[in-house]
Specification:
Length: 343
Amino acid sequence: MHHAACLGLGDLGRLEASVLDSLDGVTLVGGADPSPDARDRFERELHCPAYETLDDLLGNEEVDLVTIVTPHTVHYEQARECLSRDVHVHLEKPMVTDLAHADDLIARAETHDLVLAVGYQRHFDPRFRELRRLVDEGRLGRPHMVVGHLEQEWIRWTQHQWRSNPELSGGGQLYDSGSHLLDVLCWTLRADPVSVTATVDRRGSDVDVNSALTMTLERRDAAIRTRPPNPTPITASVGISGDGTSVPDPGESLRIWGTDGTVSFDGETITVREAGMTYETTPSIPDFEELTRRKLGNVVDAIDGEADLEIPAADGRRVVALTEAAYESAERGVRVFVSPDDE
């Protein structure tokens, strides 16, 4: 039986705590949050003790799995503390806001033989899984160009929250909802970012609101999941806006060009054009609670050795490397090479 706890007891934290408690082989033992109101609500809804600090939680409860749902810039210290106590960790995105911190957490997890997951729930979404399948099966030939966008009414409802404070968020919409687009773009194509140029507009805020990125990606081999001797270059561009009209879920699109066809996704429908034929499919869209159940269930199965982890820290590290390089590019006005992983 796994003993799980939640760090950060807002709406998402309480949802993840509830989902964990409902999984076979898992029992929820507590939570932690500096807010008295959040602790009171957690205790009323989940019937578990809530502590003010992570140290109090781990010092008073037997815990072997923690989900961390806190402001971005404190992820590193909290995850490091959990790993140092032999606790498996699920981190909400973004993983961290410093690339050295991402590398350190990955090394610590490997040293302690612990699962370290980053909560990109789109890996379990049938729409994005179908896009990945189409690319993997060679339906488009060799992908060579991709264009995507994500927009959301974001700055209006975050301007008085921690997300608009760079000391807590590490950045704006690019690190927040935009993180999902950067992840799923690379994940769908099994590609690594090589270089990036970026333009960022804060629109009077303390954090980025609009971002435009152009990137060069290199596709990995789908079968061996590593970079082949002659990787296929992919030209990519994305636009991310936190001053859009879609609320609460973002509006988005993704289109991939290959040597033998194209696939486009408008948020609902996938359209494939290949060999002179066109067809459409509209995969079912699970609700957010179901996606949360799938990803946390996968984390538990990975801990038990019953499944491969589908949201590994390496994916989170890739997004951090790309985002940090994009911020550097926007600040310096030059193309920046993205730091590769250790492979």
